[in-house]
Structures are given as C-alpha cells and as structure tokens.
Give the backbone structure.
Amino acid sequence: MRIVLVGPPGAGKGTQAAYLAKNLSIPHISTGDLFRANISHSTELGKLAKSYMDAGNLVPDEVTIAMAKDRMEQPDAEGGFLLDGFPRNVSQAEALDEMLQSGGMKLDAVLDLEVPEDEVVRRIAGRRICRNDSAHVFHETYKRPKQDGVCDECGGELYQRDDDSEDTVRKRLEVYHTQTEPIIDYYKAQDLVVTISALGKVEEVTQRAMDALKRGD
Ligand code: AP5
Ligand code: ZN
C-alpha cells in the first residue's frame, strides 16, 4: 500500500506511523525524521533544514522533494510506503503525483488524523523522544517511561525537540492551517481521503486507522 498520513503537529502521526507501518509491512518514511537525522550528522542539508525547522517554517520544496524522492526510491519502498509529513503543501503533492505516475504507481489512501488544537498543544508540550531512535516516542503524562528521561525500549536518553517550544509550535500550527490543510482538498478531489479522530488511546487510534483503511472510507 502507498499511504500519506496527514494531520497537525502533535496529532500522533509518528506514533501511529510506527504501528501502522509494522502492521502493513511497509517502511515508515518521515521527512521530519530524515531532516533530524541530517541535523544530528551535521550535514549541509541538516544545517539548512535546522534554520527553517527551528523557526517553525517549511524547509524549501526543492531540497525536501529531492530528499523524499531519494528515500522513496530505496529498495525497501518498492512495494509501498507510509509517508509521514510529506507532502506538506500543494506543490509537494503535485511533485509526488508526478513521481508516482512516472513509475506507474498511485496512492491508495490519505489518512487524515483529526485532533482539537488544545490536545495537540498538550501532546507536544509533554513529548520526549529517544536520541537513539526517533520511533521511540514518549509523553510525560500520556506515555511515561518507566524511568524519567530514559527510553524503555533501548535505554537511550530522552530529549525534547528544539522546535517544541511554545512560540514555534504556534508557528507550526499556523503553517499547517495555511499550507498543509489545502492538500486535504487536493486529495479529496482524487477521492483518497480517509478521516479519523486521533483522540483516545494510541492502540484505539491504530485500530480505527486500520479499520478505516480496510473500508477505504
Ligand atoms: P515533523 O517532524 O513532520 O513534525 P510535525 O508534523 O510538526 O509533527 P510532530 O512530529 O510534531 O507530531 P506527530 O504528529 O508525529 O506526533 P507524535 O506521534 O510525535 O516536522 C518538523 C519540521 O520539519 C517541520 O516544521 C518543517 O520545518 C520540517 N519538515 C518536515 N517535513 C517537511 C516537508 N515535507 N516540507 C517542508 N518541511 C518539512 O505525538 C506527539 C506526542 O503525543 C507524543 O509525546 C506522543 O507520545 C503523544 N501521543 C501520540 N498519540 C497519543 C494519543 N492517542 N494519546 C495521548 N498521547 C498521544
Ligand atoms: Zn530508544
């Protein structure tokens, strides 16, 4: 399957993507994670991306599209993928369509996670991520690690993202509404959008997502 996951910052895209990708046996491709990996390796791309991410803005399309294309062309993505955080505006969605069409492929679904803004803010404020693996995501209230500051899965150090400060989150939400939400209409025109509520326990949301993808509603 080829799926796009869309939703505001903090909706739980990364959390759900980890489970959905496993259930569906497809790789989880997160442009945010790819940028953060470049930042931690101090690459030129990482240095460029950091300046935009810290301000809550989108990284320019040219570099983002090239990076996403390169990742989607890896052998493990041949049979499908779950895109998390890409596309993030209409020109990225158009570029993705072109990429897929040139390979004779198409998307199966766009899964839209709906969460009220006050919940998004609570989720982001308490989020803690493992330094060893960005798929190890915790929350200081909703998903507490057994030991403060230590990842349950690998013992790695938990940290708070630089772009999770209150001001930057506000900016990221604004960017989501103005630039990313329009892709939902873009994909509605292709009859691809499946909307679910992302409220409730993590496993309830995963089940809701799996059911909705099966039904295709
Ligand atoms: P990115 O990394 O994609 O961030 P985001 O879209 O802002 O999303 P988040 O990672 O903040 O949230 P999430 O929805 O994954 O939530 P999570 O699962 O962690 O992008 C970061 C930046 O990179 C962008 O601002 C931009 O600069 C750049 N970028 C990335 N892609 C780009 C692109 N295509 N073009 C241009 N620039 C791009 O969950 C949040 C918290 O809630 C966690 O603590 C979790 O434990 C908790 N939680 C999750 N589910 C539940 C639940 N059901 N109940 C209670 N708590 C829950
Ligand atoms: Zn870990």
